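# nightly structure sweep
# worker-07 picked up a monomer target from the shared queue
# config: single-sequence mode, recycle default, output format = structure tokens
# input follows
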Amino acid sequence: MRWRENWTEHQEVDNEKLDLESKDIERIDASKLSRFIEINSLHLVTEYNPVKAIGLFNSVIQIHLLLMMNKASPEYEESLHRYQKAAKLFQGKILFILVDSGVKANGKVISFFKLKESQLPALAIYQTLDEAWDTLAIAEVSVEHVQNFCDGFLKGKRLRENHESEEKTPKAEL
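# output follows
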């Protein structure tokens, strides 16, 4: 079956083509292939809304980074561009989410992370498995800020004090 040697599976995401070569497919089991497809079919940055929330929490990627900022702000376009660049560095490890603080219903998400409007824009990172989380108020969204914050969280460093000692927020659907 010579034709299979040159066969490639293509996946289009965020206008980029991802390839999985046939030699890789033959060595991959069904669960790994399923994970590849799910991870690579996600957008680099997913905008939060209550309908998408269920899917986000059911994602195979268990660490979520949220950028909370107002889409109407003059810095939004450039900030989103930098956030997307940072997302490429953590693709498959961290799910990047945008939360528009200008949408009143998103106030629940912002208050869950004990942030106030005056502290935005901010990053919040959340691990779905053990509900560990951390936040970082930022004056400017930069690839370096995002990368350092994510790397620190992945290494177990937290900027805020232990959240376990804080009054437990009842788990509510965001």
